[in-house]
Amino acid sequence: MKIILSRKGFDSNNGGYPCPILPDGRLVSLPIPGKSGFHYHEVHVDSTHTYFDIMHQLSSTIKINGVTKKFVRKFECHLDPDLIFDAQQFRHQDWKPLFGQVGSAGGHLRNMKVGPQDIFLFFGWFKQTRIATDGRLKFKPNAPDLHLLFGYLQVERVVKADSEYVAPTWMGDHPHLGQLFRKKTNNTIYIARKNLIAKPELPGAGAFTFCNKLVLTSPEARKRTAWKLPDFFQNCRIPYINPNGKSDRFSGSSNGFVNVNANIGQVQELVITDENQDNSKIVDWAYDKIM
């Protein structure tokens, strides 16, 4: 079983500001802008708030490919990974959580043989929020910018979503089923299991509520890309971070943890395998985050 740390949601070039940790602890990963036919005001945080409602309170602008624009209702979003049934209205009763990947990142996942039973842990850029005196949601002053885990998906099946693929109705309008993506190389969709293998009472995919164990960024760090992880990660092969089992990105091992320089640019997918082909520690670490 492989564990994949998958970076998703707003970044400095697309979106332009952190995803919110809501005052009640919910983690709202804001999907990047993208032509999908589906708008931010059509994605629901809960029964009374859409993503547009939340975003409009946090910022009057949005970045698209590095260009700052005024944020208005017409903007479409790339809702992927799609983990929560209630995020869209009128879901098919057989709907399952989905995650799509394409291009070089999709090819990397294929080359690493990511497939059934493997687990994606999705992480992104987050910051604590508060309700201000005017009743609007705002980022907390001086709150740190964090990389943290916001959701997971254990793979049941992988499909190549090319122009010939006939998608079942329950997949709905996932962005990787659109013609824009079907024409691209390595367009792949990962379908979630109904339940976790290790704990069948839990769903095979879902979103987390904030707690400290989900934070990747070191408490002492000034940058969100400075992580603190268990020191056994030094024995793992992680393309882009530790491809050969030996890397200067690790430093300061103490008390069972090690500092990691996770500043890896636009890389999205970090597939983790143990140097000795025994992934038990990594898998246990991942399940601890989920459970």
SSE arrangement:
Blueprint: E1 3-7, E2 19-21, H1 51-58, E3 61-64, E4 67-70, E5 98-101, H2 103-111, E6 119-131, E7 137-139, E8 146-160, H3 179-182, E9 188-192, E10 205-207, E11 226-230, E12 236-237, E13 250-254, E14 257-261, E15 269-274, H4 280-290
Parallel strand pairs: 1-6, 2-6
Antiparallel strand pairs: 1-15, 3-4, 5-9, 6-7, 6-8, 8-9, 8-10, 11-14, 12-15, 13-14
What does this structure look like?
- The protein is mostly beta strands and 291 residues long.
- The protein has one domain.
- Helices cover 11% and strands 28% of the residues.
- It contains four helices and 15 strands.
- It has helices at residues 51-58, 103-111, 179-182, 280-290, and strands spanning 3-7, 19-21, 61-64, 67-70, 98-101, 119-131, 137-139, 146-160, 188-192, 205-207, 226-230, 236-237, 250-254, 257-261, 269-274.
- Strands 1, 2, 5, 6, 7, 8, 9, 10, 12 and 15 form a ten-stranded mixed beta sheet that branches. A three-stranded antiparallel beta sheet has the order 11-14-13, with no helix packed on it.
- The longest helix has 11 residues, at 280-290.
- The two termini are 17 Å apart.
- The model has no long low-confidence stretch (mean pLDDT 94).
Question: Summarize this, please?
Answer:
This protein is mainly beta. The protein is built from 4 helices and 15 strands.
Entry keywords:
single chain; 291 residues; mainly beta; 4 helices
